[in-house]
Every structure is written in structure tokens, then in C-alpha cells.
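A reminder before we start the practical. When you read a complex entry, don't treat the lines as separate problems. The point of joint prediction is that each chain is placed relative to the others, so the output describes one connected object in space. Small molecules and nucleic acid strands, if listed, are placed in the same frame. In the example below there are two entries. Take a minute to note the order of the lines before looking further.
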Amino acid sequence: MPPLLMEAENLTVTYGSYAALKKVNFSVFEGEIVAIVGPNGAGKTTFLETVAGLLKPKEGSLKFRDRNITKLEPFQRRKMGLMLIPQEGNLFPSMPVKENLQLGAFFENKRSTEEILNRVYRIFPKLQDRTRQLAGTLSGGEQRMLAIGMGIAANVKALMIDELSLGLAPKVVGNLLSILRDLRDETGITLILSEQSIKALDVADRVYGLEAGEIRFTEDAQQLDRDLIKSLYLGA
Amino acid sequence: MVLQGLITGIIIGGILSLPVMGVALIYGVTGILNYAIATIGTFGAFTTWLLLPYGLLPAILAGLLTSFVIGFGIQQFLLNPLIKKKGNDLTLFFIITFGIATIVAGLTKNFFPRPTISIELPKLGTLFIADVAVDINKVIAIAIAFSILLVMRFLEKTTKTGKSWIATSQNLKMAKLVGINVEFVYSLVSGIGCILGFIGAFFWGVLYNLTVNTGWDLCFLGYIIAIVGGIGNVWGGMISALIMGVVISFAGYWLGGMWQSVALYVILFAILIVAPKGILGSERSV
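Here is the predicted structure of the whole assembly.
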């Protein structure tokens, strides 16, 4: 069993009187690919934003690499190797592609940034053709590529991606997912994906089911009854 | 006569553009309309004046540093915690920074031995533009005012810190996620904004007389000129500062001093009726 990387205990997050997350317990082991599935409004985004530090939990605690990070700011968590690519607004639209990637690699020095950018370009050759184009003018698929490229450039221990498949053609989603799995196999990065697409289950090791702010199940991805999941959580 | 008025106008406009750029920069990055930067800059200019006997350069550095530290400190220890608690409320922070401006102006009045100062620089001679005599110090003032915009662009393009403030102004959430300490960026930018306020007040003190009230005027003018230029838009602020400078200058010549502010407001309202978002449009980016 690989060591525990991240652990959430009794995480409760509220918006006013509405509880978006209720006593959520969640753990991820190093090198795992974990998918969080659930219908719209289940609390997937809230959960990821809380782990990234954008939202502060009302109760509960978060541990990352054996450190309590509940009170840390987003940039401190990023420095420790935890990064979130949100589902929307994940680019700096008036900056060129290359500067976006450089900001993704914020904590790297100049030389390692170049190396990392080359790695991103190998994975997404399309981005290399457009290094000087403003991010806001890319197509939807290219923007998602760039956002994931920023996550890869971040060179973190754990990368969280919120709704990778949103608005993308199934084939593109399949490609991105296999790219991510290869990345994990190559670098040992831990991935946490929140997904409404059943395809995510193809690459995931483990699946959490989230509904109405509560964890309903956690299961090995291989042992899941996919049709059941599809009808219950993915609204397909 | 016209040329003289134009030159005076450009000089006034150039000096005004400094606090205007400060307001625009801070708003662009933090979303706060900071009213206090010119009073803080005036405090810094008074500090420079007080320390002039110890040499010009150390005095200028001291004034610069004082302004930066006050601007940085207020953002870091007062405004940032408030943003965290209350969110970014435009009106709330306007009122708070207005209060800070009042306090700083009061301190300036009580802290320094004289209410009106004039900063004496070594005379460098006179330059003739057509037939108009212009003090070289004034030319230097304008050159510095305009080059600051270029310096800022340079910082934004080449340094990580500069990129951080651009990133923060474009996408706050993502800036946090890629690892930028946005609170520090806010404080830094506020400090830099106050340095711009200082440079403006300093040159005002070199060319004219600087009083606590001048600080208020610079605040107020800086503020409305920033709005006319398109709040948050540094270039727009610069252009509108020059227009306003020329308006002030000609109104003074042709209509008399008491009509200067009337002319200013007429132009202000006219521009806002034609272009409600300001000359170059408002944007939260610099």
C-alpha cells in the first residue's frame, strides 16, 4: 500500500445556512487516480475548492503530506505540491499561451521552467504552435489543453482537475484522460478528477460517489457497477 | 501665450498623471479605489523636505520609502484582513481609504514644523521651447512622470513580481491557485501606488508650494481624472491627466484661478456624458 497523501476528516462547508459539504471523509494515496462522481450540485467543486484553499471549511480538517493544511492559504498549499485546475476561468485570458504556462510553473526556476514547458509541448504539440497567441482567443478544446498544461507545468505532487470533460467531445476527453494516465505512470503524480463523464472511470483506480454534500460510497473503479453509477449519479 | 498655456498644462497634467496612475494601478490589481495615496505621498514629500539638509538623494529615498511603507502597511494590516472578512466592497473601501486620507493629512499637519513647503532643487538652467522659457527641473519632472509608465511596463514584462500583479488583475482565483501570494501582491501594489503619489507630491513641491491641502487636491483630482480616463486604465488615466492639466492651465489664464475647478468639472461631466466608462473605457487590468 502506498503512503497516504491527502486526508479530509469531517469536512463541512457551508454557504450561509446551506451545507454544501456534510462531514466528508476522503483520502488519497500517493500515485492514485481518484475520480469523484456525482450529479450537478453534489458538492464536487466545493470539495475541490476547499482542498485547494479557496474556501474555508466550517468544520473538519485537511491533511496533506502529513501536515495539517486546514488553515493554509492557497499559495502555501500550491507550494507544498497541491494544485487545482478549476472547471471555468482557469486561464489568464489576456496573456499569451507561454506566459500562462510559465505562471503554471510559478515555483520553478528559469531553467527548470524551460524543461517543463518542453515537456508540456511534447504532450500538447498544438500549444507549441501557439505560444504567442493570447489564451482567451484559443478554442474551447485548446483552452482546456492549456489549463491542463498549466497543471502539468506546475510539477506538483497532486493535481486536481474539476470537470475535465465539460464541453468537450468524447474523443477529446478520452485522449486527455489517457494522457493523464500516462503522466501518472511516468511521474507518479496523484490525480483527483471530479467528473460527470463515465469515461473517467476508465482511468481511475478508485471512485468516490458524492451526492447532496455527502459521500455515498467509495469503491475500486474496476468493481463498480457502471450502469448503476450512470443512472444514479451521472444523469446519462 | 497659447504655447505657454499648453506647456504649463502638460507639466500640471504630467504631475497629476502620477497619482492618477497610482489610483489606476491599485484599482486594476486589487479592485479597491484607494483615496489615500496622494495624502500618503504628500506625507512622504514632507519627509523628504524635512531631511533635505542631509542631502537630496537620501531625503528622496527616505520619502519614497516612507510612502511605500505606509501604503504597504495599510494594505497588509488593515485592508487585506477586511477583504478576507467582508469581500471586496467598492463603497466600503472608498470610505475606509477616505478615512485613512484624513488621518494621514492630519498627521502631516501636526508632525511637520511647517504647513507649507517648497522643495528647493539645484537650478539646472532654463530651456527655450519656441519663445517660452521652461525650467529644466520641470522638464525632468515630466520626463520622470512619463518614463514611470514605461518602467511599470518593463517590470510587468520581465519580472515575476510584475507578472504576478498582471495575473492577479486578470484572474484572481487562478492567480491564487498557481501559487501567487495575492495578499502580498495587493500590499506591494499599494506601496507602489503610494510611491507614485509621492513622486507627484514631490514634484508639486519642487514646482509650486506643497501644503496639506495640495495633498487633498492631488487625491481628489487624481481620483476624478482616473475616472475620466476609464478607472483602472493606466493609459486612459495618463491621457485624461494631460487633458485636465491643459484645461486647468487655460482656465487659469483666460478665466482666472477661481474658474479652474469649474472648467474642470464641466469637462469632466461632458466626457462622462459622452463616454460613461471614461476615455479609454474601464478595465480591471493594467
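Discuss with your neighbour: The CA atoms of residues 175 and 181 of chain A lie 10 Å apart. What might explain this?
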